[in-house]
Design a protein that fits this description.
The protein is α/β, with parallel strands linked by helices and 249 residues long. The chain has one domain: 3-Layer(aba) Sandwich (Rossmann fold). Helices cover 38% and strands 22% of the residues. The chain is built from eight helices and eight strands. Strands 3-2-1-4-5-8-6-7 form an eight-stranded mixed beta sheet. α3 links the parallel β2 and β3. The longest helix has 24 residues. It is globular. The N and C termini lie far apart (45 Å).
């Protein structure tokens, strides 16, 4: 089975970890904060992976195009169930070479992508280029802090006793601090209006403590543990951030 669609895979679990908080945040920013109507917005999902977030946004009414350089991911994205009213389009392309004319999209989303690209500056230049004047850029990324080094890389990836990720890895040196990202975007002409933290709520701890040993013993897939974490937007940015800005430059 395609790993992006396999409930036992890490890639499937990542979508289960990320979508429950990032999709509502994106929808709230665009509709409640900026008073847009979903059906009127063209959205580009950069680094869409297996298309999970693209599919969620399309079901909310957005006109979504997803791009990713991974052909296996795009096969999964295209295979996702959809209906005629909620069908994203998918194309093979890296963030550094987006195959669209300038000012094509009303919204560009780069969620958990910028820390993986080969050339961050070129990727941001391309994202800026395809976003129309007055368009919205929404971003999320892990922070480069001691806290993320300990949890995201040390506990989740490197420590043999605690690691839960083998296929999905992060390089600490590629992680981006929110202030650095905001400055980089603003120098390109994107006014950053909001940067929020992403945190694990205390109320999730009992569920995590139940799901973790069952995952390590092979009794439950990682996706169950991912759902138990129940990440929330708000609080400190020491682990990760999500935010948005508008292209005015």
């Amino acid at each position: 089975m395609n790993p992006w669609l396999d409930p036992s895979s890490e890639l499937f679990a990542m979508a289960e970890l990320l979508d429950p908080w990032r999709v509502p945040y994106i929808h709230q920013v665009l509709t409640r904060r900026l008073h847009h109507t979903p059906g009127e917005l063209s959205v580009l999902d950069v680094g869409c992976g297996g298309g999970s977030m693209s599919a969620h946004l399309a079901r909310l009414g957005y006109r979504v195009t997803g791009v990713d350089p991974d052909e296996v991911a795009l096969e999964a994205a295209c295979a996702r169930p959809s209906d005629r009213h909620a069908h994203p389009e998918f194309m093979a392309a890296p963030a550094e070479r987006l195959p669209f004319p300038a000012a094509t999209f009303d919204v560009v989303i780069c969620s958990e992508v910028l820390e993986h690209v080969d050339d961050l500056d070129t990727s941001l230049d391309e994202i800026y280029r395809v976003l129309r004047f007055g368009g919205v850029l929404i971003f999320s990324t892990p922070n480069r802090t001691l806290w993320s080094r300990l949890l995201l890389i040390g506990v989740a990836q490197e420590c043999r006793l605690t690691r839960v990720m083998r296929d999905v890895e992060h390089d600490y040196e590629r992680l981006i601090r929110p202030d650095e990202l905001a400055y980089t975007l603003e120098t390109r002409g994107v006014d950053v209006y909001e940067v929020n933290g992403v945190h694990v709520p205390v109320r999730s701890l009992p569920g995590i403590l139940r799901a973790y040993p069952r995952f390590k013993l092979g009794r439950e897939p990682l996706s169950v543990l991912a759902r138990a974490v129940n990440l929330q937007v708000g609080g400190s940015t020491r682990l990760a951030c999500i935010g948005w800005g508008i292209k005015y430059g």
